Amino acid sequence: MVSRRPLGAGFWALIGATFLGFLGIGTALPAIGPHVRHDLGGSDQTVGFVIGIFSFVALASRFVSGPLADRRGRKIALLTGLLSCALAGATYLAPVGLTGMFLGRILQGFGEACLYTGAAAWAVEIAGIHRSGQALGYVSSGIWGGISTGPAIGQWLGSFERAAFTQVIAALLAFAILLWVPEHYKPSPHSGPRRWIPKILVPSGLAVGFVNVHYPVITGFLVLHLARFGNSGPTAFSAYALLILFSRFFLGGLPDRIHPSITYYGGLVAMALGLGVLAIGPPPALAVSAAAILGFGFSFPWSSTAARILQKVPSGERGSAVGVLSAFVDLFVGVSSFVAGGVAKHFGYSAAFVLGALALVAAAVAGRYVFTREDTSDGPAEVVVADGCLTG
Predict the structure, then answer these.
(1) Do 230 and 287 meet the contact criterion of CB atoms below 8 Å apart?
(2) pLDDT value at position 381?
């Protein structure tokens, strides 16, 4: 029997700190390009380099943040990420021109990797492995909430300097909150060579990677595509983002209550439906509905896959598992950004949406190797006891 005790104050403090960390990131992010281009005199290519260096650093840092969370503790990894985000904001403000922007984005990439890995692994430890889907859903809600709210705050602040300062304050406030949250996880000694990508994670990494191929299509081409069909792009994107936020918050526990393969494949079906409708260039009402269905479907594959993997790996390897899965997402999003751009250029915007839908076929195939028959047990061997610690 597993305990269904309510999530305590420490868990919600963790989610709040995650929200603040990504709120700071979102506040400064939209203003980076204009600041580099107009205030610092950089070229359009320089803007691309400043923005893009974050992704490469974040991808590489996933392989550092995971072992850090496993060997030093989830709290250490998360605090390290928040401190790096605060330093990134401070570096943006340093009077060193473009050098400060590049250094700040490097610190931001490392900080985001540690922030997410630490938050996800720690949330699962507090909630219990039997509620890993719910815990990951709440973490994602904090991330999406912060990223969605941050740009509005940055625009209201009116300048890049104020936005960067807000990033510093938000990260330090989150840091201060987490200092008072106790951590029950005890790192276990690791012996032998470290496996960078364990074989068990390859199918799940491919699954979540292919699921995320659609993301650069939506962010890059949704508004442009729908401009010819009633100009409903901004509203459709808002519907997409809001459905992700609310579904992960209120329905994130579904992979814990029913077999995660059901929520995984159900999410893929909803995503395929949404992308298929968007590809044909529908009228505004149908376009907004399709984007909402797409966001709803996208809410489930990550938590379904990650919950299944975290139930399989030992507690001392869960941080590394989250880091590797996140690295697959970074890699696929980065590569598919270039591929989708080429497809849209040569075949039109509709073809880019078809590309996202076709990637779901590959995600479905990869899912067969994640949700195997031996995974149909009633639940993991670990249960949650009264003090929140895990025991076999």
Answers:
(1) yes
(2) 37
